């Protein structure tokens, strides 16, 4: 039994800090409840949701063995593709551009 998701505000506005904060708090509480349930915490779908960017359909196919990759493979593949934090990636690209311009 999943905890209930926080209700959506019919007139939600991304530009309204109160709406955004209220929704964020509700989603945080939802996630905390899930992470405190041992049965839910052991579910492969949860791990795929938290650790990859697969669509729900692809997650379900992976969990049910309908893909050429396992749940662990999917998580490792995503982790290897995204092993850098965005700021590190920007700094790496900037350093490469600086080095290229110095060699000209």
Describe the protein's architecture and organization:
One of its GO terms (biological process) is cilium assembly. This is SNX10 protein. Belongs to the sorting nexin family. It is found in: Cytoplasm; Endomembrane system; Endosome. With 104 residues, the chain is mainly α. It has two domains: 42 residues, no CATH class; 61 residues, no CATH class. The protein is built from six helices and no strands. It starts with 16 loop residues before the first helix and ends with a helix. The mean pLDDT is 83.
Summed up:
By secondary structure, the protein is mostly helical.
Quote the distance from N terminus to C terminus.
62 Å
Mean pLDDT: 83
Number of domains: 2
**Class inferred from helices and paired strands:** mainly alpha
Q: How do the SSEs run, as a string of H and E?
A: HHHHHH
Question: Unreliable runs, pLDDT <50, ≥5 residues?
Answer: none
Topology overview:
Blueprint: H1 17-35, H2 38-41, H3 44-51, H4 56-63, H5 71-81, H6 86-102
Helix pairs in contact: 3-4, 3-5
Q: What attributes does this structure have?
A:
104 residues, mainly alpha, 2 domains, 6 helices, 0% strand, flat, phosphatidylinositol phosphate binding, PX_dom, lipid-binding, cytoplasm, membrane
């Amino acid at each position: 039994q999943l905890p209930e998701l926080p209700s959506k505000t019919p007139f939600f506005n991304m530009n309204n800090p109160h709406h955004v904060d209220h929704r964020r708090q509700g989603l945080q509480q939802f996630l905390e409840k899930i992470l405190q349930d041992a049965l839910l915490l052991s579910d492969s779908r949860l791990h795929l949701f938290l650790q990859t960017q697969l669509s729900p359909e692809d997650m379900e196919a992976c969990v049910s063995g309908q893909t050429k990759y396992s749940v662990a493979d999917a998580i490792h593949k995503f982790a290897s593709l995204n092993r850098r934090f965005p700021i590190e990636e920007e700094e790496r690209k900037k350093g490469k551009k600086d080095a290229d311009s110095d060699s000209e």
